[in-house]
Amino acid sequence: MAPMVRRAEAHCVCFQLVLSRLCEVEFHFEQCLSETQVEVLQLGSHCFLYFAKVNATDVPFPTDQLIQYSLLIDGVSADLTSLSYNQILPSLCIPLKLTQVFHGSCRNPHHESRDSLSSADSFIKSCREHGDLGPQILLMSGDQIYADDVAGPMLLAIAQLTECLGLFDDAEANLALPMDLQEQLYRRHLFLPKTPWQSRSKLAIGYWLKKDQPHFTSMKAGNHLIALKEFIALYLLSWSPDVWQLIDQTKLTYSGSNLKHASHFNHELTHLKQFIDDLSSTKRLFGNISTLMMFDDHDVTDDWNLTANWEETVYKEPQSLRIILNGMTAYWLFQGLGNDGLAESRELIQPFKKALKEKVWHWKTFAKPIHRFNSWHYCLATEPKLVVLDTRTHRWRNDEDFNEPSGLMDWDRLLELESNLISHEHVLLVSPAPVFGVKAIEAIQAVFNACGEPLLVDVENWMAHEGAAKKLLDIFRRADTPSETIILSGDVHYSFCFSVKARFGKHDNRIWQLTASGIKNEFPKKLIKLLDKLDTWLYSPLSPLNLFTKRWKMSVDKHSLTDSQSNQFLISSSSISLVTMREGRLEKYELIHGSGQISRFDLDD
Fold it and tell me: How many CA atoms lie within 13 A of 367 on its CB side?
């Protein structure tokens, strides 16, 4: 995997890359004095993950301008022409005063849509050719991989890559899977842990129907990842075109007798090949822009920590817990370490290394540290301040009913959020799930939740938990919170632009809810049009139904695209968003689609 620019600050820039052997790695910045500190984690016989921290040794690195960099491997200059926009060297920008950022979420390799990261690469290429800086940060706010929705051809490629790189095995991954991988295709969910119906609560319908309760609730779990080496391989195959050179694509075939599976396999393979063709653009994009991330559920598994009952069920079963911790470990390796530049995440490195014994992962020395680690969230001291929220591992449980959805953040984390917001004029806030979502959809989710099925429709919105919703809204209504807060969210597979103001208050603040989803994923278009109209009809500004929502003290305005003929507010089209700011305030909000087309939201009141 080629160098990826991660956290970048005036005193230190972090890179990550994967090489097939141990060697000396050193980065140099043009006209800047620096020293390189390297941390190496061996993931397989021929797989070494490198984290390079390039520290300024004389004066701080220049900010908000392009800096070219070079890479030396064992003292020899590496060929980085494939990363360069000018055929010489790649370049990066250390952000301070943010004027433009990319943001998106939900990137599914085998989805029918085009990968909009390729369009983002083309946009930056155009900026650089015209002498413009372009976006300073790429923010990916969840579902960077889909561990619970893996294409059949991708699972076969994962198996090839794990063998080719000699990725290390898990000692405790003991599931009774068929030995032949072909027999596992689209059937893994049958072998994943379940709670027998006899052990379920008699209040559950499943008990009376004598139906076992699956621990992993994704409807597409037929190829769910299990071992750590599979998670590692999926990251490499999702981010690097180079590792695909190790894959014999002629062997990506389905040999089973199930005609439905065969048709599905071929359909996935068609779209996966397009994804592979676009990966060279993704590689170049990652090499030229600071990329920061945050997990959502699919990075580990669907409905991760959605309810307290889900947690109680999954975490008490060793095999289920092992799968969850494998997903979290892979996230730490490929996303978490670079998000904070190893500041807090470094504490897991030694326990991780100790877990490797004789080329096998022995997890008793690493399970507790990774499970208890509580610093996934982070901030960046830019203008406006960047605050990235962990809405998965610090949930506010409903202690009265474990089947009720948990709040996305508990009291302590909400207090920490409050301290990060107050006394700042402008803040850029990343919440994987929208804070101000679509009321009609949340109402539908509330109906399913009332029927005891929160997992069926992913009841994961901020308003689903009384305590978390009230505290969050109270924070936004404080007089000393920012005059403008821009919230970047994803998760929902459609995009929209809402503006929010507090009612009845003296604080003239503005909140922008900018939702961009997905990078390579889409919501069913006919259904989203129906839901859009339903929301418009039921929750118009004068509708009395607004009084029954938790955010009735907030005035929410919806913004459509400037070129929209149908006045549709919810946009289902694979895209990455481009957020343009002036002096910390939102100036433009655009969608760069996978097709390359650019749409703009009308921000006028």
Answer: 15
